[in-house]
Specification:
It comes from Ruegeria arenilitoris. The chain has a single domain, classed as Spore Coat Polysaccharide Biosynthesis Protein SpsA, Chain A, CATH 3.90.550.10. The protein has seven helices and nine strands. The strands form two sheets. It has a seven-stranded mixed β-sheet with strand order 5-4-1-6-8-7-9, with helices on both faces. Strands 2-3 form a two-stranded antiparallel sheet. The mean pLDDT is 90.
């Protein structure tokens, strides 16, 4: 699956965190953004979209083998990152995996499970992680034929419009628990999650 790069979306501004960067929160002993890059790097080459430098996220990723994409228009929303990152996908890639950087329970095994579904369900165009009870989440793999559509998205809606347009071509791959959907967008959510981790 080396021909399926992972696009790690990490250019957002954590608007709901009250000035705290959620991607710099410590998870498993390291900043969340580095943890996310590590699990991505375990399954394929990584293209990471980052806000303009200087930014603490660059230091958190220092020394890693990543293709860094700068997103000067990150304030537009997620699709600015998608457009710029998709432009870096090699022409030889059969597909690309889109991964949000703020999923603290997702693992490299989860990413591998979604990657395997590409081979196991070759009749589909989109392969997507889901919670154990079937709620669609991340990561999401898009066939090469859909990358041009990703490259023309605007705003902050992500790739949902493309997914909706191809619902009959989507395979949902259940992952353990809430791994595919658990993101923490507020200090309160982080505090509650840490409390549950300790218990």
């Amino acid at each position: 699956m080396e021909d399926i790069p992972v696009i790690l979306l990490a250019a957002g501004s954590s608007r709901r965190m009250g000035g705290v960067d959620k991607l710099m929160q410590i998870v498993d002993g390291q900043p969340l953004i580095r943890r996310s890059a590590e699990i991505a790097g375990a399954v394929g080459p990584v293209i990471v979209a980052l806000p303009p430098a200087p930014h603490p996220r660059y230091a958190a990723l220092r020394g890693m083998d990543l293709d860094v994409v700068f997103v000067p228009d990150a304030d537009e929303g997620m699709n600015a990152s998608l457009r710029r990152a998709v432009a870096q996908v090699p022409v030889s890639a059969r597909a690309a995996m889109i991964l949000l950087a703020d999923l603290p329970e997702l693992t490299s095994d989860d990413l591998r499970a979604v990657l395997r579904s590409v081979t196991e369900h070759p009749d589909k165009l989109i392969w997507r992680g889901a919670s154990s009870d079937g709620v669609p989440g991340h990561p999401v793999i898009f066939d090469r034929s859909l990358l041009a559509d990703l490259a023309h998205l605007t705003g902050d809606g992500g790739a949902q419009a493309i997914v909706r347009a191809h619902l009959d071509q989507v395979h949902l791959q259940p992952l353990p628990g809430q791994n595919a959907i658990l993101d923490l967008d507020t200090p309160q959510a982080w505090a509650e999650w840490r409390k549950n981790q300790k218990s």
